[in-house]
Specification:
127 residues; 5 strands; globular
C-alpha cells in the first residue's frame, strides 16, 4: 500500500501569533511500517531542535489504524519530549483516546494535552 505524505515530517506554521508544530501521522490506514518510519522522522526532527526550544504540538492520527504497540510507541515519543512540550493536541484518536490517556498518565506525563476530532478546534486550544 502506498502512502501519500508531505516531504517534511513536521510542518511549522503560525496561528494567532503562535508557532505550532504539525505532525501528520494521518491516512496511513493499516500500513504500520510507513507509520513507524514517519514517527522516526518526527522524533529525529524534535531531537535536533529540543535543546533550545519548546513546542506546541498538533499531532494528527486520523484515519490510521493504531494497534496497542503503535499507541505505546507514539506515547514513548511524546514522553521523550515532555520537557520541551508546552501543549499537545491529538487529533482523530477516536476509540484510541482512552488508551492514549491511560498510557500518558501511567508514564507520568503532566503537560496539557487534549483530544479533538476537529483540527481547527485543536489549533484554537493550542494558542
Amino acid at each position: 500500500m502506498s502512502v501519500i505524505e508531505s516531504r517534511y515530517p513536521v510542518l511549522v506554521f503560525s496561528f494567532n501569533n503562535c508557532e505550532l508544530h504539525g505532525c501528520h501521522l494521518d491516512g496511513y490506514k493499516d500500513n504500520s511500517e510507513a507509520l513507524l518510519n514517519r514517527l522516526a522522522l518526527i522524533d529525529k526532527y524534535f531531537e535536533s531542535k529540543s535543546k533550545v526550544r519548546r513546542f506546541r504540538i498538533w499531532l494528527n492520527v486520523d484515519d490510521s489504524f493504531l494497534s496497542g504497540a503503535m499507541i505505546e510507541r507514539i506515547v514513548q515519543s511524546i514522553v521523550r519530549l515532555e520537557d520541551n512540550i508546552i501543549k499537545i493536541a491529538i487529533i482523530g484518536a477516536g476509540n484510541n483516546k482512552r488508551k492514549l490517556e491511560k498510557l500518558l498518565k501511567k508514564s507520568g506525563f503532566i503537560k496539557p494535552s487534549c483530544y479533538f476530532s476537529d483540527a481547527e478546534a485543536a489549533k484554537e486550544w493550542l494558542v
